[in-house]
Write a structure and sequence with these properties.
Strand order of the largest sheet: 1-2-3-6-5
Structural class: alpha+beta
Order of helices and strands: HEEEEHEEHE
Number of strands: 7
CATH topology: OB fold (Dihydrolipoamide Acetyltransferase, E2P)
Radius of gyration: 18 Å
Number of domains: 1
CATH architecture: Beta Barrel
Strand content: 25-35%
Shape: globular
Helix content: 10-25%
Largest sheet: 5 strands, mixed, barrel
Length: about 150
Amino acid sequence: MAVAASAESDLSGDVFGEGPVPGPVPAIVLRIIDGDTIRVRAHIWLGQEVVTNVRLRGVDTAEMHARCDAERRLAEQARVFVEDKLTEDHIVLRDITYDKYGRRVVASVMTASGEDLSQALLAAGLAHPYQGGHKMPWCPTEEAPPE
């Protein structure tokens, strides 16, 4: 009985899926939704896979359903950029957490060559840094909302 109590006392919330999954979790890209969201089939356990949408950690790209032509062009450029980076469909997910809306997860996405996709988007000027909260505007006449 002491062994069971000892083992039980060492369990954290992460063991039961309540915390982040550090990864690496291998995945196959099924679809590129837009510059910061992809659909994947993740290999979560021996013989078990899950299909989910993944939002790239730490970035925001322009939206495909944009408010202005400039944003729409940037959104298309970001989507094409991601397509070019993910020419090989095998990727690795790291630091996986639930998205605040629950319809997808948020993760760092590493390409087949080991490149961090979020960092690549930022370096190309196709993404704004994003850590939650208000998003920066993409249309030239919009102002950022007050923090």
